[in-house]
Design the sequence.
């Protein structure tokens, strides 16, 4: 360090420096996130309509009152929570299993990993269009296969009892590779010596996994579950492109509903209220993650 | 209680040979130390005994039975790792009890839910709980039983690792540099504790280290290895007094044995810097020799009183004793020419003499304290009368 540089960072400069560095991202977030968020919160308390975006007047909690009286709102909430839960469970399970399968070196591993990452690397819109074709009732791959097996054609995306599962399948296909990447990284940091110690102590492969590997990758599993859950709560493209929320609202999550309310019913106020509910849901998930994470750290340090 | 036999045991990774044709027998109840510099294959050997590394060729026999393909748990061994390898999310109690729980574990306990219940049940079973607490008391861990490894000090973790190895009462203990992560004081303490433990349990210990002090103080027998090859198998005294070659002579002892290349002409020995003196004892045949003598066997004398004129270069005062590093000088050239290798000859004397650097001095020795090596093969040449310890 030259005397000049230490002088530069002395006294007041040193005290101000951290704030100087924090300011640009803070300003960025304020303009592009906090301000729109605050405005949305405000909108949810007004009767603004899309036809006159600046003409709304304050109505208090009327929009929320209207939501809670509407049975469709509960369907939407149900679909959202169920969609998030199922994609987390299936996506994380599938991703973890593929990571375990690919963790040990074998001939052709790089190729296998590249293929398994495919679903994650393809842009969502492209992936949705590919699946749209495969699900097509007349000429899609799936129905073609069913027909060649002599089975009836299935309305993958247009029947109320199949649409949800079809959407979940695409989502899991898209999310599992990401889970695999994260879990793979965690698996590769499991210390070999601890695994070997368990083997010498008489543990078989399953016990080694349960006693050593699983606890080691658990924080990563939890983090990736949080990410997948939050992504599912705010996922729009796949659902909108495949079903648009239909049939009869069976795949209509909060985000799809926001678009419908805002741009088809022109109810900006109600749409904002939907948005607020979605935000609360995502924050709730993050909160659960935060609390369990803290508890585990405390528990480990005992 | 197995007797371990190695028959031409080899290990290679691809084309890289780590251990080449290792032959030895480890008897029951021995404290055998595998000593060598890092990368000499001693840890690999230990891992092959434990069943953690595959044997490339040759045979490993447990009491005469071929054990090459036995699963680690079949071998009934305990392993203490250099990093301790404790289970970080388990309490000290669960760590120590783990081998016992695994012994009592049945295949169907793997079912979900059953697993958690079974493990809790096993942990609380009177036998396992009693054995765990008993071992913990022996190693003074009883106050730490409900803590986790993250909150323990290095020495405490070391103890937990030992307890986990001891609890199953195996017949063979394998220790892979267990003290190298401890500070010097704790290391000395744990060294004597492990020795005491060996006396108490009376089982076979195989201990890997690169620290010759650990080897000398703990072992009943030492195998010195270098580059995957056995250099010498002997008791600590045998290794110290009669090293098989110059590698062993240099590796064991601190400071190591003084080795001076000399040329013999009749009874006269000449170093490469033209210093020469007459040797009074038995001499091996051959012209080019290496003259070896332990630092404590050399006499540190005033100038002109000993056969080897020298100059003090280093003085290390250790309190009870002093190690003096000298350069042999040639009086024929006015005492200025250094030894070609520029190696210092170390003398260890008791007390704390007033010796200054660059002081003129001389060294002398008794003929029976000298060990001779062949300058070409680097192996020791036995001399009948010169080394009574041999007989």
Sequence:
């Amino acid at each position: 360090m030259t005397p000049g540089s230490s002088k530069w960072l002395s006294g007041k400069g040193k005290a101000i420096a951290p704030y100087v560095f924090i300011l640009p991202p803070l300003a960025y977030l304020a303009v592009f996130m906090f301000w729109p968020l605050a405005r949305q919160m405000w909108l949810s308390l007004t009767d603004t309509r899309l036809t006159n975006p600046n003409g709304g007047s304050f109505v208090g909690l009327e929009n929320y009152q209207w939501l809670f009286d509407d049975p469709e709102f509960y369907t939407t909430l149900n679909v959202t929570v169920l969609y998030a839960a199922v994609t987390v469970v299936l996506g994380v399970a599938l991703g973890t299993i593929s990571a375990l399968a690919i963790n040990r070196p074998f001939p052709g591993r790089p190729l296998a990993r590249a293929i398994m990452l495919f679903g994650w690397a393809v842009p969502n819109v492209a992936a949705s269009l590919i699946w749209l074709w495969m699900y097509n009732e007349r000429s899609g791959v799936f129905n073609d296969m069913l027909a060649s097996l002599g089975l009836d054609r299935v309305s993958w995306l247009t029947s109320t009892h199949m649409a949800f599962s079809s959407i979940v399948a695409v989502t899991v296909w898209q999310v599992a590779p990401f889970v695999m990447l994260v879990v793979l990284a965690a698996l590769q940091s499991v210390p070999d010596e601890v695994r070997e110690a368990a083997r010498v102590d008489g543990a078989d492969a399953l016990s080694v996994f349960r006693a050593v590997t699983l606890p080691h990758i658990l924080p990563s599993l939890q983090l990736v579950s949080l990410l997948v859950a939050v992504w599912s709560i705010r996922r729009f493209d796949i659902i909108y492109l495949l079903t648009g929320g239909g049939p009869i609202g069976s795949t209509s999550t909060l985000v799809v509903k926001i678009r419908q309310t805002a741009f088809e019913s022109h109810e900006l106020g109600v749409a904002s209220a939907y948005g607020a509910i979605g935000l609360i849901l995502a924050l709730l998930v993050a909160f659960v993650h935060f609390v369990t994470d803290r508890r585990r750290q405390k528990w480990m340090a005992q | 209680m197995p007797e371990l036999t190695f028959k031409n045991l080899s290990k290679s990774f691809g084309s890289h040979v780590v251990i080449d044709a290792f032959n030895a027998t480890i008897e029951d109840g021995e404290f055998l130390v595998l000593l060598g510099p890092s990368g000499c294959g001693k840890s690999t050997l230990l891992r092959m005994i434990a069943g953690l590394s595959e044997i490339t060729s040759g045979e490993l026999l447990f009491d005469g039975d071929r054990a090459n393909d036995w699963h680690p748990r079949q071998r009934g061994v305990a392993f203490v790792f250099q990093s301790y390898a404790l289970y970080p999310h388990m309490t000290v109690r669960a760590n120590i009890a783990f081998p016992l729980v695994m012994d009592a574990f049945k295949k169907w306990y793997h079912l979900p839910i059953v697993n958690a219940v079974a493990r809790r049940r096993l942990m609380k079973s009177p036998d396992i709980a009693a054995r765990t607490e008993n071992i913990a008391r022996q190693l003074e861990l009883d106050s730490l039983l409900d803590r986790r490894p993250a909150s323990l000090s290095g020495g405490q973790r070391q103890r937990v690792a030992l307890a986990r190895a001891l609890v199953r009462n195996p017949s063979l203990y394998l220790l892979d540099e267990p003290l190298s992560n401890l500070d010097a004081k704790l290391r000395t303490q744990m060294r004597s504790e492990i020795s005491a433990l060996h006396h108490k349990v009376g089982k076979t210990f195989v201990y890997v280290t690169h620290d010759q002090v650990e080897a000398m103080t703990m072992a009943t027998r030492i195998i010195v290895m270098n580059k995957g090859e056995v250099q010498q198998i002997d008791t600590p005294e045998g290794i110290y007094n009669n090293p098989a070659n110059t590698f062993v002579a240099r590796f064991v002892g601190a400071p190591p044995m003084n080795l001076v290349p000399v040329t013999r002409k009749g009874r006269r020995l000449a170093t490469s810097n033209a210093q020469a003196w007459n040797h009074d004892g038995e001499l091996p045949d051959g012209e080019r020799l290496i003259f070896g003598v332990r630092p404590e066997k050399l006499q540190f004398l005033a100038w002109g009183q000993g056969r080897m004129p020298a100059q003090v270069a280093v003085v290390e005062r250790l309190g009870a004793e002093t190690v003096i590093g000298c350069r042999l000088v040639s009086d024929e050239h006015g005492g200025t020419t250094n030894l070609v290798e520029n190696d210092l000859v170390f003398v260890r004397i008791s007390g704390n003499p007033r010796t200054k650097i660059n002081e003129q001095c001389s060294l002398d020795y008794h003929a029976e304290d000298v060990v001779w090596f062949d300058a070409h093969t680097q192996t020791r040449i036995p001399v009948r009368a010169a080394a009574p310890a041999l007989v």
About this structure: Confidence is low (pLDDT under 50) at residues 337-341, 385-391 of chain B. DSSP finds ten helices and 21 strands in chain B.
